[in-house]
Amino acid sequence: MMRVDTKAYGSVDVDERQKIEFPYGILGFEKLKNYVLFDAPQAPFYWLQALDLVEVAFVLINPVIFRPDYTLEVPKEELEEIGIDSLEKILNFAIVTIPQNPMEMTANLQGPIIINKETRVGRQSISTNLEWGVRHPILKELAAIRQQPC
C-alpha cells in the first residue's frame, strides 16, 4: 500500500497496482506522468490523482455507462505505443467536467483516457470519430437510455 495525498479526499491508502504511468502526460498536463486511479465514493465515477501535484486530479467515467453505442476509435499506433494489441487489455475512460450545477456535468468523449490494464501505462488520445465531442451531457444521455424500450 502507498499513502497518497488527494485533492478531494485528503490522504488515502491505495494499492501500488493502482499507479498508472502516462509517458506523454495528459493534454494540458504533459509534465505530470504518474497518477493513481481508484473508485470515487460516488459510483460510477473514478478518481485519477496526479502523484506529483495534489491539485491535479480528474473525475473519470466509463463512457459506455451513458453511451452504450460508444466505440473507442483512435489511431492504432497510439494503442501500440502503450502496449495494447488486443481489446482485452483496454480500460477506457472519459474525463468528466462538473460545473457549478452538477446536473449539467459533461464527459469528454473526444479525448479518451486509455489504460493498458496489464502494464498500467496510459495515454490520452483524440478520437477519430467526429461524432464524439468534448461535452456530452451525462445525465441527459442516461435519461434517454432509460426511456428506450427494452
Instruction: Identify the CATH class.
Output: Mainly Beta
* CATH superfamily caption: BH3618-like
Q: Give start-end ranges of low-pLDDT stretches.
A: none
Main sheet record: 8 strands, antiparallel
By CATH, the architecture is named Roll
- What fold name stands as the CATH topology? BH3618-like
Class of secondary structure makeup: mainly beta
Integer-rounded radius of gyration: 15 Å
Q: Please provide the count of β strands.
A: 10
In DSSP terms (H or I, runs of 4 or more residues), the helix count works out at 2
Number of domains in the coordinates?
1
Distance separating the two termini: 43 Å
Provide the succession of SSEs.
EEEEEEHEEEEH
Strand content: 35-45%
Average pLDDT: 95
The best one-word shape is globular
Structural notes for this entry:
The protein has 150 residues and is mainly beta. The protein has a single domain, classed as BH3618-like. It is 11% helix and 37% strand. The chain has helices at 76-81, 138-147, and strands at 2-6, 10-14, 19-21, 34-39, 45-50, 57-61, 90-97, 106-116, 121-124, 136-137. The strands form two sheets. Strands 3, 4, 5, 6, 7, 8, 9 and 10 form an eight-stranded antiparallel β-sheet that branches. It has a two-stranded antiparallel sheet with strand order 1-2. The protein is globular, with a radius of gyration of 15 Å. The protein starts with a strand and ends with a helix. The mean pLDDT is 95.
